[in-house]
Structures are given as structure tokens and as C-alpha cells.
Amino acid sequence: MTATAHTPLRVAVSGARGRVGREIVAALGADPGFECVAAVDVDDDLSGALAGARAQVLVDFSVPTAAAANALTAVELGVRPVVGTTGMGDAAVAELRAHCAAAHLGGCVIPNFALGAALLMWLAELCAGHFESCEIIESHHPGKLDAPSGTALRTAERLLEARGGRPFDHAEPQTQTLAGTRGGSLGGAGIHSLRLQGPVADQSVVFGALGQTLTLEHRTTSRAAFVPGVLAAARVVTTTERFYRSLEEVLGLPPAASVSRAMASSEA
């Protein structure tokens, strides 16, 4: 059953007392198309809450150690998972995807629900094949549990996919007087994690080529930025059995690779 003009979508929130969870709960209460039927957190009975509330969707912004189990519990009860918690790992995401497919349920694990972050990654894919070096810099609050952020890691993965697996050039210093100064690297794409008071969730992707650089940057000033994407995903997963890994897929944006090919064709 999906939501109609007279039947709000019944949504449960896991991690409801967290920074993002509170925003999601408030947004659900303010939108007549939704009903927040359960708000749970650590040590609460998620299974009982989902079953008792007859939830249709579980939105999870909990912690990496709990998110995968929460999502699997939801699927076992016929509830569609919308996961914004990062740090689950590829194996856990693959397991969840398989469970959703077996249960014929839609679902998603999306590292960043902000529209600006989705567009940054999409635009970065367009650029990936035209530059030979790339560095990703992400900034979050000191309490973030994983590093690099799920957004930064997924960005690097997508850039490499856009290049057909061809690595970026990654310069390593001959002498490193402070260990770790160059940060991490995935396929030659440098990744740097900043943790300090002030930022909410920021990311820059810097491309380099002979005589020039190109920087794409997204800054989040409030966790309310994640709300529209979460609500859009909650709606979409009730109408399809598809499993989504990006907000662009939820919003129906064309694959960046197809746009890049069209651009190259028009220039030929």
C-alpha cells in the first residue's frame, strides 16, 4: 500500500534522537503526505515498533554498527529501508540489496541526501575523464564516527567508474616529515577528512591538469538540507522494487556517462 491524498505514508525513523533524525521526525510531522508512526533509537525495540506501527518505510540515520541490522530487520517485516547512515561497508549493502530483491521490496542506501551533494557527484563524473589528477576534501563535525565520509568514498568510486577503472595520477612525496600528510587514496584519487567544529557536511572535488584546476564544492549549513531527498526516497521505494544507491537515481537524473558521451558526440 502506498500513500494517497487521503492515506499518509507510514514512516518509522531509526536514530530519531540524533542530529539528522530529529530533522526527519519534524519534517514528517509537518507534511500531510507522511505520518511518523515510530521514532526509535539505541536500545529501543525496533522490530516491535515496526510491527506495532504497521510502518511501510524505515528511515535509518543511526550508527554504522547498527544500520545494517536495522535495515535487515525492516525487510524481514516487509518494511522498505531508506538508509542514510554511512560506514556500513560494501558487503552489508550487497546483503541488504539481496534481501530487498528476495522480498520484492524497494530500498536504498544513499551516502548523502542533499540535492547539492548529489549534483556535485554527478558533475564530478562528467569531469573525471578529462583530468588526470583529483583530490577530494570532506569536512564534518568532530563527532562523525567514520572517515572518510560515505559521500567522499562513493564520489571516488564513481569517478573511477566514469574513467572505466583507469586510475588518477597520485603524486607521493619523496620525503614525508609528518605521516599521513597526503591523506588516503582510492584509485589515485586523494581523499582528505577534516573533523572540526563548525562544518555540518561539506565536500570539495579538485581536478588538476596542466596549467589549470577545476573545483566543485558543496557546503551544508543545516541538516534540514537532507530532508527533501529523504522524503523523495521514502515515496519512491514504495512504488518500485528497485534498490537505489544515489539520490540522482531517485530523482531520475540521466546517468552522467550518457551525458558525457552525448557531449563528446556533439563535439566530434
At a glance:
By secondary structure, the protein is an alpha/beta fold. The chain is globular and about 60 Å long.
Keywords:
single chain, 268 residues, alpha/beta, six-stranded parallel beta sheet, five-stranded mixed beta sheet, 9 helices, 11 strands, 22% strand, globular
Identify low-pLDDT runs: none
Record the strand order, biggest sheet: 2-1-3-4-5-11
Percent of residues in beta strands?
A: 15-25%
Number of helical segments with 4 or more residues? 9
What's the end-to-end separation, in Å?
A: 49 Å
Percent of residues in helices: 25-40%
Structural class: alpha/beta
How many strand segments? Answer: 11
| Main beta sheet strand tally, sense and closure | 6 strands, parallel
Helix-strand pattern, N to C? EHEHEHEHEHEHEEEEHEHH
Radius of gyration: 19 Å
Q: Characterize the overall form.
A: globular
Q: What integer is the average pLDDT?
A: 93
